[in-house]
Amino acid sequence: MRRLFFVKGYYLLSPENKADMFVRISTFLLGLVLSLPVLGQELTLRGVIQDSLSGDPLIGATVAFPADKTGTLTQSDGSFSLPIETKGRTSFQIKFSYSGYSAQTLNLSQAQIETGPLNISLTPTGYTAEEIVITASKGFEQKQSDVTVSIAVVKPRSINLQATPNVDKVITQVPGVDNQDGQINIRGSSGYAYGVGSRVMVAMDGLPLLTGDAGQATLDLIPVDNIAQVEVMKGASSVLYGSAALGGVINVITADPGPEPRTSVRLRGGFYDTPANPALDWDGNKNALAGSAHIFHSRKIGTTDLTFQTDFIKDTGYRQHTDQEQFRGLLLTKFRPKNVQGLTIGLNASTRIDSSGQILYWRNYFPDTLMNVEGQDSVVGGALTPTTDAGGLRRQLSTYLAIDPSVKYLTPGGNMFWYRGRFLRNSNRNDTDQESRNFIFYNDFLYQTVLAEKINWVSGLTYTYGIANGDSLYGGSHPGTSLGIYTQLDGKFGKLNTSLGFRYETVKIDTLDRESRPVFRAGLNYEIRKGTNVRASFGQAFRVPTVAERYANTAGGGILIEPNPNIGSENGYSLEVGFRQGYRTRGPNRIQGYLDVAAFRMNYNNMIEFGIKEVNFVTPSFSSVNVSAARIDGIEITTLNEIQIGKNWSFLFSGGITLTDPTDLNAVAEEEQLDLTEFGPARTLSILEIARLLALLNDPALADRPQTLKYRSRHLIRASATAAYGPFAVTGNFRYRSFVESVDQFLFVVVEDLKAFRDMHPNGNRVLDLILSYDFNPTSTLSLTIDNINNEEYMVIPGLLAPQRKFTLQYLFRF
Questions:
Q1: What pLDDT score was predicted for residue 619?
Q2: What strand order describes the sheet that includes 104-109?
Q3: Is the pLDDT of residue 578 over 80?
Q4: Which of 361, 362, 381, 609 could form a disulfide with 385 if both were Cys (CB 3.0 to 4.6 A apart)?
Q5: What is the pLDDT of residues 202-248, one digit of tens each?
Q6: Coil, helix or strand for 196?
Q7: For 409, what's the count of Cα atoms within 13 Å in the CB-facing half-sphere?
Q8: How far apart are CA 122 and CA 263, in angstroms?
Q9: According to DSSP H, which parts of 190-300 are helical?
Q10: In this structure, what DSSP letter does residue 18 have?
Q11: What is the pLDDT of residues 414-470, one digit of tens each?
Q12: Residue 796 vs residues 181, 191, 566, 760, 786: alpha-carbon distances, Å
């Protein structure tokens, strides 16, 4: 009788004798052993996904292998790498997809996969080229037009056109964003707070870049040679980003290495022109110089990504005694183990060492003070020379170190577990015995999944621990911790996008009572028709006072700051309704872009400002206090337009107008408003004037509470336009900032000629930059930048004049 055996898909007939059986089994086992390498062979699918019309890489596009339920996402340069087990198969069905683009499915043979990287082009389905953003959700990609809040995106092409070593110039060109001496302000959410307590969360790759003592954004840690994109989210954002996100979030996303190694060397050199008022030219026939050298390299080494950058920057300072020498270093690493698909382990490090001179405000505006300058008999001083008051000038050595560990695991089912940490340490040493040292360790544990194939759910936990040390500045050491849990649901139901989030955070600083606070956010976005969206959102936010705001005890330039440990947290909310219209034409001559209109309101309670604490003869002392209930209403109109004519001509225009009404709801009547504009610096007052000044400062019926919030401009205009023909491009940047109506009244008694300058410049400032660039070949670019080409004279903050016209030549070599 013959019996039938089934072994691993092979059929064997039982022989009549044992010898035949032994031969057949041996032959089968030998064939099985020889076939094992083929059955278990692993291939690696590599390639790049890009926009079929513009050629731009698509970041976060999906590459899926449905047969094994595996997949991956493209990196910042559009590249991808996906391991595939053959399992005896000769054909592999791969699906390529991206939000807002037509999906593409290919049946690839083993030979096609082994041959080399694929070049996949996807075609947009909407009316406009959609940017993909992650800041609004923290964990997954969304089309810019689908987000329920206003969000702006700056792409690498625009960043490269700016030809700048620092990201702050890039950020300041975004509509609604202002930069006052390093403090970022979105839609008037914050004015100037003397370098402490940012109301905008500045982050790199989603991790905060705010120092542990003053909450100051360390923008100089961010490299411009390796940015995938910058995302600016406007409005209260504390649900996902915690404290300091009252006004919004600026998230700089770094790029990952592509399939081919990249190296670049960038050299910059330039000089400052003579000021608009030649009498302010403190260095005579000399010109302040600025230069920098930048070296960048990124590559993939097997399963490891490696990025390295180092910068050397030197500036002799357009203001006297403000020379600067700076070193920056960056190392980014990612490792993807072959035996654990979907796992990525990262460790990044960045550092900055900065030696510079710092001044509080100018000596005077009118140049009537004689001073000696090396090589010259004498020149006149003025607004580019520092005050001689004690502490008004200091030499400072600042060091920053950030170490960022991360572990990211994407399960075969598409769920994501992600840990990100940042250890940020900074030290400030100076010659005025006001040193500080602090560190902050930020941890974020995030989980993301998809519910019912329609709702993206992000949940997480953040834990932060930090210590600020400053014996003379802060009176000792001050530890602090915070713990927050958050969750957010983002659903897409046909043409309707929804968002709902919640956060609960508890904070403890030093020995003070623990503060706890819940916050909510909700938003809707509806696509009326292709390219036309309306949105509405509501979000709550809060900000815990920094160590500097609680404990700072310092003096400089006639200003005394005293501690206030019991100051309370700020809180508020923002409302927004918006309309967005996208458009696109097809054919060889192509126009694409969008127009966005948003109306918004921001309400803040317990707003923190520095106010007069005590009057001691003619020198009042100040401390941070909760004084304001504020409301900021406004309208913002933004646009982006890309025009392609034939193969050679291209045009890019972006910009916007922001109109705001920043109101102090607890303002005093005009007749009760403290007015010190008639006084000059206290050191020059007569006895009678001093007596009048003291009477005003001690009068309980008067207060420095104007109706318009301090340090805000009602109108901001930002515009950037580029025209390119072949290898040649011309870029113009325009910035308008209306007159700052309200400043602290005590500054009129401290800063010489402040009232005179404000009276002479009542119309705000208009600044125009020009950039000319030429690509000699794909590896070499030469550019000339003229900043402030109209040589506008204006103040950054009271007593600090902005840079005059500056010429910079840059050479970029890529290989």
A1: 63
A2: 70-73, 62-65, 91-97, 104-109
A3: yes
A4: 381
A5: 999 989 998 888 888 888 888 788 888 899 999 988 899 988 888 99
A6: coil
A7: 9
A8: 28
A9: 238-241
A10: H
A11: 789 999 999 999 999 988 777 889 999 999 999 999 898 889 999 999 999 999 998
A12: 6, 12, 31, 15, 19
DSSP at 694? H
- Pick the closest to residue 228 from 56, 96, 422 (CA basis): 56
Of the candidates 814, 303, 143, 243, the one whose C-alpha atom is nearest the C-alpha of residue 546 is: 243
Task: Pull the structure tokens for residue 731.
Answer: 């870029």
Q: What is the rounded CA–CA span in Å between residue 209 and residue 520?
A: 24
d(CA 790, CA 98): 44
Task: Calculate the alpha carbon distances from 262 to 51, 255, 259, 813 in Å.
Answer: 21, 12, 9, 11
Alpha-helix runs per DSSP H in 514-619: 547-551
Coil, strand or helix at 58: coil
- Measured between its terminal Cα atoms, the distance across the chain in Å is 74
- The pair of structure tokens assigned to 73 is 């996402």
State whether residue 777 is helix, strand or coil: strand
- Phi then psi for residue 557, to 5 deg, are 60, 30
CA 226 to CA 308: how far, in whole Å?
9
What are the tens digits of pLDDT across the range 715-764? 999 999 999 999 999 999 999 999 999 998 988 988 889 999 999 999 99
Q: Characterize 51-89 residue by residue with b for buried, 16 or more Cβ atoms within 10 angstroms of its Cβ, and e for exposed.
A: bebeeebbbbbbbbbeeeebbbbbbbbbbbbbbbbbeee
Going by their DSSP bridges, the two strands 559-561 and 619-645 should be labelled as parallel
- Cα Rg for the chain, rounded, in angstroms? 30
CB neighbour class for 764 (10 Å; exposed up to 12, middle 13-18, buried from 19): middle
Q: How far is CA 167 from CA 15, 174, 785, 814, in A?
A: 79, 12, 16, 20
Q: What is the pLDDT of residue 697?
A: 82
Strand-pair partners of 581: 532, 595
Residue 330 structure tokens? 């960056």
- The C-alpha atoms of residue 421 and residue 446 are separated, in whole angstroms, by 11
Distance CA 536, CA 17 (A): 83
The stretch 143-152 carries a mean pLDDT of: 89
Identify the residue whose tokens are 């696109």: 584
User: Among 512, 543, 561, which Cα is nearest to 215's?
Assistant: 543
* Dihedral angle computed from the Cα positions of residues 423, 429, 435 and 437, in that order, rounded to the nearest 10 degrees: 10
Q: CA-CA distance, 419 to 409, in Å (whole number)?
A: 9
pLDDT for 248: 93
For tokens 């008051």, name the residue: 389
How far is the CA of 648 from the CAs of 159, 643, 645, 726, 729, in angstroms? Answer: 21, 11, 7, 5, 11
Contact 333, 226 (CB under 8 A): no
- Do residues 51 and 129 make contact, with C-beta atoms less than 8 angstroms apart? yes
Contacts of 254 (CB under 8 A, 6+ apart): 76, 204, 205, 223, 226, 227, 228, 307, 332
Neighbours of 671 (CB within 10 A): 8
SS3 assignment, position 540: strand
- With CA atoms as reference, report the closest residue to 198 among 209, 446, 719: 209
| CA distances from residue 805 to 240, 271, 451, 708 in whole angstroms, order as listed | 41, 9, 55, 31
CA distance 130 to 602: 28
Going from the C-alpha of 515 to that of each of 160, 208, 481, 506, the distances in angstroms are: 44, 21, 11, 6
Measured CA to CA in angstroms, residue 75 lies from 126, 240, 512 at distances of: 23, 23, 45
Distance CA 32, CA 10 (A): 10
Two tokens, residue 345: 């382990």
Helix ranges (H only) for 173-305 are 238-241
Which stretch of DSSP H or E encloses residue 394? strand 393-410
Residue with tokens 């809060």: 542
Q: Are 417 and 447 in contact (CB under 8 A)?
A: yes
